[in-house]
UniProtKB/TrEMBL annotation:
Transmembrane annotation, as ranges: none
A molecular function (GO) term: structural constituent of ribosome
InterPro entries (alphabetical): Ribosomal_bL12_C, Ribosomal_bL12_C/ClpS-like
Species this chain originates from: Mycobacterium palustre
Protein name: Large ribosomal subunit protein bL12 C-terminal domain-containing protein
Amino acid sequence: MIEDAHLYRRLALLEQQVRLLSERVGVECPIFGSDTAPAPLEGGVPAEVVALARAGNAIAAIKLFREMTGAGLREAKEVVDSL
């Protein structure tokens, strides 16, 4: 389970980097598998974070939420605890 969480986190970060690079060089960004996933839940919580939290991996969910949103530790913990 931890390996899966790590893999999803790495994929999300790589997708984010490709999007940023595409924007900077003015090239259309490819569509990723996560782009066709269900939309984020109410409040803007990414689906990957929700999946980690619901799988009982709160620490990984908090870390991923912080990486994806730039939120502080307290805010990320409150969001994950609320899921």
